[in-house]
Amino acid sequence: MKNKFHHLKDKHLLVIMTIVCIVLILGTCTTNVVSSSVRNVAGYAVAPFQNGINKVGGWLTEQYSGFKNVKKVNAENASLQSQVDALTSENTTLMQQTTELSRLEALYQMDQEYPDYPKVGAEVIAKDAGNWYSTFTINKGTDDGIAVDMNVLGQSGLVGIVTDVGKSWATVRSIIDDESNVSAMAASTSDTCVVTGNLTEMDSGKIDFINLIDDNNEVAEGTTLVTSNISEKFLPGLLVGYVSDVTEDSNKLTKSGTLIPAVDFRTLREVLVITQLKQTTDGAAADSVSGTDTTGTAASAGAKSAASSASSASEGSTAN
To answer: Which residues on neighbouring strands pair with residue 244, listed in sequence order?
Structure first.
């Protein structure tokens, strides 16, 4: 009995295990089928969202990359702009230095043209209102040996004369000023005249000359005018300018005209002051910065012949 009971129990156990295995197998198959169906349904439902998210993510990635590129480009532009600014500043400095060098070379050449005259270099530090350097101040004075009536050169020729001076400054009146008169002569013939300042005429780049004694009609356009040896305050032979035109005066004895100054009176920066005063003897021709020229009056009133008018014009009073 007992053996029979054990035999039945083993058979039942085997059957139960077999059924459990079959159920597990069926369950697995069913789960796979259900799982597959669920996955398919989920795929259809989730896929659009996932694609949208992927697209948004890609767009955000592109925007971030673009933003990084913009920042990089801006940084590069800032660096390049900094380099451009530095090069521009350097170029400006070089141009200024080149211009200054050219001016100093011109002054050096002028210094070489008048080697017999001692000179002091000076910078223009102030000027009167207006476009022209008709009256201006330089940064040298009595401490540097500067005195009133000393001649002033600049660029290519005569600038003017010192009219006032302090310890470290001096005032210069240029030859284009309305109150300036310079006793001059033609370099080629020594025919004398008076160069008169004229700021109105200077707007056309010229100033006047009057009382020219030119008996042989040799003075013409392009003739060089220099300071005369009969001037009381100007050393002889300093370049004043070049004749632009000349006409005969109504008295038939003298001539007048215009000249182009040797100096550009719009751009004076540096000058040379000749530290030697003109030496004159008693009774010599007198000329001053603010004086009134009387050459023409003497020539016309006292002239009885061409010779006497020439003598009177040469020896009459001329202003600077």
So the answer is: none
State how far the alpha carbon of 181 is from the alpha carbons of 107, 132, 227, 240, in Å. Answer: 24, 17, 11, 12
* Distance from C-alpha of 108 to C-alpha of 194, rounded to nearest angstrom: 28
> pTM of the predicted model, to two decimals?
0.62
Q: CA 192 → CA 182, 213, 318, distances in Å?
A: 11, 6, 11
Which of 84, 113, 142 lies at the terminal end of a domain, its last residue? 113
Tell me, yes or no, whether 130 and 89 share the same domain.
no
Which of 251, 262, 162 has the alpha carbon at shortest distance from 210? 251
Per residue in 194-245, pLDDT (tens digit) is 999 999 999 999 999 999 999 899 999 999 999 999 999 999 999 999 999 9
130 lies in the same domain as 91: no
Domain count, the chain: 2
Tell me if 194 sits within 8 A of 293, measured CB to CB: yes
Residue 215's domain comprises 119-279+311-315
pLDDT per residue as tens digits for the range 132-169? 999 999 999 999 999 999 999 998 899 999 999 999 99
Is 140 found in the same domain as 75?
no
